[in-house]
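> run fold UPF0145 protein FEF34_16410
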Amino acid sequence: MGIEDFGGGQGPHADVLVVTTNDVPGFRVEQVIGEVFGLTVRSRHLGSQIGAGLKSMIGGELKGLTKTLVQTRNQAMERLVEQARSRGANAVLMFRFDVSEAADVGTEVCAYGTAAVITRV
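> ok
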């Protein structure tokens, strides 16, 4: 099944459809492969920590930390898709993120879901 079967798509995981739902309208789940995940832990840059500390006193978005979290989230998702692809999946169902602090030195982001093979009905 190619990307044209999903209605197009671009980017590093265009051949693997990632959805938060249990199923995909117009597609049938042919095989459930199992749980897949992508995990990464990022430490905070000293400059962004100082900036975040100052910014937290006056309020507003912590742009440096937001940028780091977006990069971390994207890396976790890329790892999830790589794992799904390597196990023969063309979809990840019930996709979720879990974010937590890692020993007060960084942020742990885990992307997880159920790898599956789907076909158009």
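Residues 3 and 9 are 6 Å apart (CA to CA).
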